[in-house]
Amino acid sequence: QFTSDQLWRYFTDLKSPDFDTYLALVHTRFSTNTFPSWERAHPLRMLAHNGEINTLRGNVNLMKAREGVMHSPYVKDLKSLYPVVEPNLSDSGSLDCVLEFLVMAGKRDLPEAVMTMVPEAWQNDRTMPDEKRDFYHWAACAMEPWDGPALLTFTDGRYIGAILDRNGLRPSRFYVLKDNIMVMASEVGVYDTDPANVALKSRLKPGRMLLVDTQEKRIIQDVELKMRIAKSRPHSDWLKEEITMEELRAASSVVPESPAAVVANGEMKEELTEHDMTRIWGGDRRISLFGYSIETINMLLLPMIRTKKEALGSMGNDAPLACLSQFQPLPYEYFKQLFAQVTNPPIDPFREKIVMSLMCPIGPEQNILQPSAKQCHRLMLPQPIISLRDLKVLKKNTHRGWKTKEIDVTFAKEEGPEGLEKTLNRVCDEAAQAARDGYQLIVLSDRKAGANRVPVSMLLALGATHHHLIEERQRMKVGLILETGEAREVHHVCVLLGYGADGICPFFVFEMAKSLREEGVLEPALTDEVLYKNYSEAMERGISKVMAKMGISTLQSYKGAQIFEAVGLAEEVINKCFKGTPSRIGGVTFKVLAKEAYERHHLAYSDKDMLVLRNPGLYHWRQGGEKHINDPVSLANLQEAAVNKSTNAYDRFRESTLDSVRDCTIRGQLEFVPSDNPVDISEVEPASEIVKRFATGAMSFGSISLEAHQTLAVAMNKVGGKSNTGEGGENPDRYLNQDPDFNRRSAIKQVASGRFGVTISYLANSDDLQIKMAQGAKPGEGGELPGYKVTEDIAKTRHSVAGVGLISPPPHHDIYSIEDLAELIYDLKCANPNARISVKLVSEVGVGVVASGVAKGKAEHIVISGHDGGTGASSWTGIKSAGLPWELGIAETHQVLVLNNLRSRVIVQADGQIRTGFDVVVAALLGADEFGFSTAPLIVMGCTMMRKCHLNTCPVGIATQDPELRKKFAGKPEHVINYLFMLAEEIRGHMASLGIRKFQDLIGRTDLLRTYENNSNPKAKLLNLGLILKNALHMRPGVNIVGGSERQDFQLEKRLDNKLIELAQPVIDGKQPNINIDMEINNECRAFASTLSYHIAKKYGDEGLPDHSININLKGSAGQSFCAFMSKGVHVTLEGDANDYVGKGLSGGEIVIYPPKTSDFDTITNVIVGNVCLYGATSGKAFFRGIAAERFSVRNSG
């Protein structure tokens, strides 16, 4: 693997004037999510690929499963080619294997094979011709899409082409020249030619293909090419073979249930009381058997059925991890959803709805190597939730020769806990036999669960069956449908889909809803049909949101893709049920899972007359229930300590919090190794130095009140730490001309996906500029500020309209890859050369490799947030089920950065429910330099954990914009300062006992940690924390690990802006009124005029200069982020064209771009600027003569 410049020195024949070629495919990339290696260097056998295949694990699993149904007339011994996907390849390598296989073993022509694997978003496109739609529909029956942001280029020697993913998330521009040359690249300006020689400047659109036939010497346009492929076979006729639920219902003898009128006993009730629940539960013990609680019903199910949406929550997840919980969590709770960050973007599932689809073909799949009508003989489900009636239809179905096998996943109570593994083996064997016996559908059912039968968790039964069938090469012969009383939440359904379920009937939800209707909790108007529709619609929204977090658009690609990490499951469970899923700390075995299943059964059916349904308080703390880090005792102690500066109260707080941390977190399973040579505390670094490593979390003015926001800023400025604006901007009156003793300026200014309030003045007046890639409480999701929280003040700060709700999208529209992030880092550095550029990530498996990519992209500071961070508002699925503990993320990040010798270039910050000195010291020993606090300072300012932030009803005036409630705010900067200094003194005490004088000497010293020995939790003893406790310096000895001790080199001295600033200085200084400047520009000159704008903003703020003070005339192809954040008074005219992000964050300047005067093409049909122009622009003007590419002017501001 070479850099572009090294290539010519190694392959000297490339320099020879006699070397001639009719095509060239060149690929240069950042190696972010894999370590660079020779076999991963592109081009591969058939393609070169810039992007990410998010659905990879599912694609590879299904390709393996297809080996049971494939045969080829062109290859005699097909088995000798298996596995089709070679092990341990990158996503590009896997894609290449399958593409080559389809072309060679299936004799597809190359463009058709590519079209089959990377289809357009055909499901919701009303304008697509029928023949093309029918081709894609047929291809969907044959194979699931390989989905993700990707620009694929491919060649077989005759054809050379490119295709863009269905979302169009990667840039692709091309020129056609008059001398019959075509140049395609991810940006313009890579090939020098006279503008008069250009016949066409164009771009590749989402899902479209560009193809050159070198034999016929012509470009084949997307429309002609795909029409030819679509008409090559009778796909429309073949689709008549497809089966629908309507057809099955019509052929079935199952009668629909009559919508009988329901009379409620008395008046309607808002939610269920314990008394009502007792009445229902007294008759149906399965509620407890399947792990329901009153919270489940009131907080999750009722809102879904009533509003067709998931309920919102706030304040983050401070309950124990499932592997530490003593309240028999269901196996789903051990899984955390993975999400896209940096190397690929999440999608906005609502505003980009056109690319989303939950439609799925289920049932037997045919031989993909021989296209025919047989591929369509499958059942097409519009979404995966199946009603009670449809399940009966499917169970009894004999239509068109199909038959269904029902397999019971319960076992007799007498078998004892050993029955669980036996039952799993029985279910696997029965399923494999059913597939061999020609059944088309298998229903796994726990309906027989009851007093004498214990259910195996449906997730374990499904995972084991799915993987067993793949190994036996039988998975493609059957559809797997689940009839389960256990699954009910969005996360449950997503985990089931991720491990191979084709359809799910959560029968107990529907039966429970009927009981609630009879009790008068649900309206009588909600008939069975309406209950099903409302619930399934809420579920569809929830599933779309979870898929979109990972950047996946179609359920067909999400199914079986296993996009989860397990926290606290033993290897034996993973190998049998969830093969290929990362589970880094080991954990509970089948024995423990069986014991917990038995305990649930015992609690439900023991002879004791237990008529009160347990409410363990998984969401809100309850006396005697599940532990929470923020319990009332700790809250009270912390507030007393901070307000009264009481060390006694702080010691009590520290004690009660440590108990909670031991019950809830991974770090609680560790303890310090005391030194044989402790030092006297007087020799330890003073508290006044330690507090400089502290920062408050990113809470926006909007999510919290102005009073709370300013109190944090004043406190942090007094102690020399840093406060964070969050994503809501900051009023100039808070950062200009501040009183040093009452400085309300936030040192860290955040740049999030909504770009609210991000102007050149905001950027210029910061110490840190933080790019928020994800948020701990809801990674992969955007933020939401409801309209009733958007006051005049907030609207002004965010450049929006009062009373109108504000949404920040899940992706940054200018970050769809690591290269894009590197560009934004560079843009921000140019917009404020004195700021430290920070990137906020969330802990998940692989975050270390992402962080090393971010460090290579020149970030100077990286935040790793834990899954348990707080939020003003998010769905409970996001709060509870996405992201991982920071302990795993910090350890992995530190280790990978050291391994790559990048650790000295970046400072690493940990954040997420950090409360005490114990938490801080553990984070430092695992590799963190700095520490973020959000919830703790809020508690100090009066927060009582009501978890009502999203309702604007915060009783203590913190998370509200209500003027009456804001009057109740009693927090003071002094309280926050008292807390931070008591915390620092506690840290000093720990350092003294560890024999450490300087805080820097703590960092990465994992030898000072060991597993907590006095652990009374039997589940905790099964965890293996060896991976976290590896010492990074043992992996690569001698590396400098002092964060930030080596400067990142941005090469700012080479910027064209330096010359610009020199020429414009007299105008900036007010010595002359205006100036005209002429220059040439090329695509190596990025973020043109951003540094000039910085100097203007430092002097004149957002007011800038008078119009046309600085007039710049340019010729050429401008680099990325041309005129980003440009100030008022700067006028730039470019004769030529430009790349992506023109006028990003425009702050009053004026841009004019037109084609070269010597080009004679029609400007209306030619592309002049790239993707994402004017993203986040707040003021100014732009004039472009020509076509702009995707996502033009996504501004999010008024």
UniProtKB/TrEMBL annotation:
The keyword Flavoprotein applies. This is Glutamine amidotransferase type-2 domain-containing protein. PANTHER family: GLUTAMATE SYNTHASE [NADPH] SMALL CHAIN. The lineage of its organism: Eukaryota, Metazoa, Ecdysozoa, Arthropoda, Hexapoda. Residues 721-740 are annotated as: Disordered. Residues 1-215 form the Glutamine amidotransferase type-2 domain. Belongs to the glutamate synthase family. Its cofactor is FMN; [3Fe-4S] cluster. It comes from Cuerna arida. One of its GO terms (molecular function) is 3 iron, 4 sulfur cluster binding. Keywords: 3Fe-4S, Amino-acid biosynthesis, Flavoprotein, FMN, Glutamate biosynthesis, Glutamine amidotransferase, Iron, Iron-sulfur, Metal-binding, Oxidoreductase. Pathway: Nitrogen metabolism; Amino-acid biosynthesis; Energy metabolism; nitrogen metabolism. Pfam families: GATase_2, Glu_syn_central, Glu_synthase, GXGXG. One of its GO terms (biological process) is glutamate biosynthetic process.
